[in-house]
Amino acid sequence: MTYDDPAVAVVELRSIARGVKTADDMVKKADVRLLEARTVCPGKYMIFITGETEAVQNSFRAGLERGSEMIVDEMILPHAHQQLVPAMEACVDISRIDSLAIVETFSVASVILSADAAVKAAEVRLIELRMANGLGGKSFYTMTGDLADIEAAVEAGVGIIESSGTLVCSEIVPNPHEDINLKLL
Questions:
Q1: Where are the domains of the chain?
Q2: In whole angstroms, what is the distance from residue 158 CA to residue 100 CA?
Q3: CA separation (Å) from 159 to 50, 82, 85, 121?
Q4: Class of domain 84-184
Q5: DSSP string covering 63-102, please?
Q6: pTM of this prediction?
Q7: pLDDT tens track, the chain, 185 positions
Q8: Which CATH class is domain 6-77?
Q9: Given this chain, do its domains 6-77 and 84-184 carry the same CATH topology?
C-alpha cells in the first residue's frame, strides 16, 4: 500500500514486553501500517510504522505515551520520500548499478533520516535500507545513480546526521565491479 503523503515513525524500547504492548497500542490508535515490530540486539524492541502523516503522528504519540520510560530512541519523519518504505522492506527492483554508495550509521533513526535526505537531494535509487537486525544495532543503506548524483546524495545524507555523531562511515564506489553488482542485485 502506498500513501499520498507518507510518513515513517520508529520507536525503540529497552523492554521487549513493553515493546509488544506499545506496538499494539500504536496500530490500534490510527490507521497505520505496521512495517515491522521485532527484537534487535542487544535485547531491545523496534517498532516501524508508516501511513498518512496525520495518522502516523497520532499513532506515534500513542507509542511515546505507552513506551514512556522504556524508550531508548524515537523518530518521526513526516512527508517521507516514496523510496523509503520499499527500501525498508527490501523490495526494490534494480536492474543495474551505475555508481554505488553505502552509508552506515550507529542508529536506526539516523539511517532513516539520512536516506530520506539523500534521495530528496539527487536523482538516485535506494537499493536497500537495513536497520539493526543482525548488525549489532548499526544500520546502513545502499543507493545507485550516476556519480555526480551519488556524490550529491551522500553529501546530503551525511550532512543531516554528521553533527549527531551517529555516522559510522560512508563510501562511494564509482562503476563497481560486475561481481559486486551481482551480489547486490
A1: 6-77, 84-184
A2: 15
A3: 25, 21, 22, 11
A4: alpha beta
A5: HHHHHGGGEEEEEEETT--TTHHHHHTT----S--SEEEE
A6: 0.89
A7: 666 779 999 999 999 999 999 999 999 999 999 999 999 877 889 999 999 999 999 999 999 999 999 999 899 999 999 999 889 888 788 888 899 999 999 988 999 999 999 999 999 999 999 988 777 778 999 999 999 999 999 999 999 999 998 999 999 999 888 887 666 65
A8: alpha beta
A9: yes
